[in-house]
Amino acid sequence: MITPDNFNIFVIPFTLGMTFVIIWLLATIVRLWRHMPQADRRRVRHSILTVSTLRAAGEIVAEVLIHRRIWKRNKFLGYMHMSFAFGWFMLIVVGKFESLTYTGNHFNPIWYPLFFKFFVPGEHEFFLSAFFTQAMDLWLALILSGQILAFVKRRMPGRTIGIRPRHTAVNRAALTALWFIFPLRLAAESVTAGIHGGGGFLTGTIGQAIAGAPVLDSLFMPLWWAYSISLGVFFVLIPFSRYFHIPVEGFLILARHWGVSDEATIRTLETLACSACGMCLRVCPRAQGDAPRMQPVYFIERLRAGRDNDNDVWGCLGCLRCEEVCPVVVHSTQIRMARKMQAVPQRRPQPAPAPVPQARQGVDVALFAGCMGKLTPGTKAAMNRILQAAGLAYAWVDEDEDLCCGRPLRLSGRTGEAQARMDRLKTALLALNPRVIVSTCPICYNMIRAAISARPVLHHTDFVAQLIDEGRIAVGRSAQTLTYHDPCELSRMADISSRPVSTLAKVGTLKQPDECGRESHCCGGALGGLAVAGHERTRLMTATADYLQRPGAQTIVTACPLCKKSIAQHAATPVVDFAEAIAKSLKTSSINQ
Amino acid sequence: MKDFGFKPVRPNVIDLATVQNRTWTDILRLHPEMRSCISCGACAAVCPNNNELTKMSVRRTIIELRHGLPLTSEWQNCQMCNRCSLVCPKGLNTRSIFFRLNTFEALNDHNQTNAEPTNRK
Predict the structure, then answer these.
(1) Which domains does chain A have, with CATH numbers?
(2) Nearest chain A CA: its distance from B47 CA (Å)
(3) For labelling alongside B115, which of A100, A154, A213, B34 has CA 20 to 30 A away?
(4) Which residues, 6+ apart, have CB-to-CB distance to A148 below 8 Å?
(5) What confidence tens digit (pLDDT) does each residue in A211-258 have?
């Protein structure tokens, strides 16, 4: 029941804002639900009462409240995000129980726990009242400590996080409202404590210090009004700003755990769950230059406003470094892919000509160099030597004709035509009836791996490592020093990064740069960069070549023809493919056995 | 006119000032670096589609675009493989031209307005 004991006109701004954001969120979820395919809806209905919901709840606590992934990257940012999220959550939960214990009524008005100190000022004895008072102050102190850090971060981004994203007007407005909320709460509760007594270690102490000051009475109502208004403004701005991630991220985690497979639903949730934290800015190779910004934080911000531009869609190299560090695991490359397909006219693919009949059928190994492989004949020669040494029957499927895995066309948004190319390649590969399919290009490897399940598909780094492990070829260790560059498609997309390194350690001493493996730099030649200007690519190539030469190894080794060509153009150190490095170290006795 | 036994032949010159060259202008707007193409042909040399079955020439397409001529090269065969960009001595992102050509709706206009160039034999 609404009585003067639990209602005052100043609660209206907060109540309106809160109601608005709840309605908006529900409408968003209902709309997503209605657009979801029947199979996914059934999956969700079947999964709700299973252990996957519990797992999701665990992840929600770890990610949405504690922000575990941000902690791993940056303790400073982790504490800041946790203090706001966890602190505010506990303030709501403890506040709810405090008002519940006090009134003994489950159905208190929505604003009652928030403004509890206004309606019940001073000291009151009820069950655990001292605990509640101190706990509420503790959570408020936690949030305020995070807010001080946030202030430091905005003042000196260089010392704390590197690059700070530039936010849009609505995001800045929401941030301002957010920053007003907790200091105003502190002020309002302290003034209340100053007039009526009570309060915990924070508000109570300040209250005692200012008690008796003549202005307290005139500050009392304005402060509670201001607190309510700042809450109301923040809540109204939530759906239009990056803070919509607060409620949406939980739904995204639930959808993932419930096995929702519909691309559109997951991408929409990811778009809304992007917190625009700017972690992607620090790792994006394109963030360093003067090129217009297209990093996920800006792209998604503009996409949500329906204002994404040409550079946003086509200017990304697709190196996936951003997805590696994203605390919400937003697959921005997939979101971009969906936009590409909308932007490009989808043509009906021409019927593919029949593959050239292969003379050699029934080989052990079918090799595929890919279109880029034609530019790196050294890799091909090295693979020939290794396979001859291993005594295996092999054939290059694209020896006589140019076959394509379709990835370049796919990246330019023409998925139908890409599929036609892949089908042709698949026919040609399976016509050889090989025991194993090996690609020397990680891009093709990822495509073939996804398309062919009838035969084992390997990247040549894995294949050669296996040959060495099985003792089919023997390599000798020399005094050479090597630096291995992890291609994006191999380390981040296919998760092959430790095996090439351990294999190379058998032929020489490795000198790795600081950021390698799944965090390796982008070579600049990435296939995704359809609209990246030439000078920009050159800048990226030079930067990565310099970075790889820093450890001072004699040779740079990589496992992708694109990386090899890009780095070799700008490095003084010789750049070789993985296969070349191994072939050079083959023990002569093992050749032509 | 008096018959001298021969006719004056129009000079085989393309007056770029009079050529309606919307496609090239559009490409330059998005990729101004394409001005520095030197038509060396390295791109065409490595192009996987520059063979007996599919006749496509990167260099030829760029020249035709520049001069506002109808595109005779089968540029639709481009599979965006990036080889041309990697060998370009000027470091240009050559393949972006074919990527743009595919998306341009203006291309139809281009081929219509330039279907019968008046100043070329």
Answers:
(1) 9-35+66-240 (no CATH), 247-343 (1.10.1060), 365-462 (3.40.50), 467-590 (3.40.50.1860)
(2) 9
(3) B34
(4) none
(5) 888 888 899 999 999 999 999 999 999 999 999 999 999 999 999 999
